[in-house]
Amino acid sequence: MSERELLASDGERDRAAERVREAAAEGRIRLPDVDGRLSQVYEARTRGDLELATRDLPEPRVVDERPTSRAAVAIFGGYDRGGHWVVPAKFTAWSMFGGGGIDLTEAQLTSRETAITVVALWGGADIVVPDDVEVEVKGFGIFGGFGKSGRNRGRPGAPRIVIRGFAMFGGVGTRKKPRKDRKGLTQD
C-alpha cells in the first residue's frame, strides 16, 4: 500500500484545513472557493485525497525564532515594540506614569491567537494591528478609556488578536493599519 492510499487521520484533516484557511488569509484562494476546499478536506478518506485538496498551496510556515520579548514595562518612561519582532502567544504591557506603543504590522505571530494584556495606570498605550487580522478588545477604563470594545473581523482564517486589560487615569487605544510584511502571518 502506498503512502497516498493510507487513511487520513483527524489531525491530518485539521492541518490541511488550516493550510486552506491560511491560504485564504493570504489571498491565495478566493473566498467563494474556501467552503468547497474545506468540504473536500473534511470529506477526504485518504492522504491522497488530502493532497489533492492542498496540492497547489504552499507548505505551512512555522516560526523558528523565539519571541523577542514577552513583556513591556514603563515606569515614568516609555516602551516601544515595533518593526520586525516575534510576538509570543501571550504578551503583557504595563505602564505607570508613562506609556508605550505596540506595532504588530511587521511582527511575526507565533500563534493563531495572540493575547495581549495591557495595564495602564496614569499612562497609556497605543496598539497598532494589521488590517487583515481579527481583533477583539475586552478592556475597560476607570477615569480613562480602553480602545474600541468588541470584535473587529479580519479575513477568513486570519490570526486573532485579543486585547484585554484596563486603564486608570489613562487610556489604551487600538487601531488598524495595512500590514507592512504579509509574511508575518504564521501558524502553530
TrEMBL record:
Q: Which residues form the DUF1707 domain?
A: 7-58
Q: Which residues form the Cell wall-active antibiotics response LiaF-like C-terminal domain?
A: 90-145
- Superkingdom: Bacteria
Regions annotated as coiled coil: none
The protein, known as? DUF1707 domain-containing protein
Natural source organism: Streptomyces radicis
Ranked from the top, the taxonomy reads: Bacteria, Bacillati, Actinomycetota, Actinomycetes, Kitasatosporales
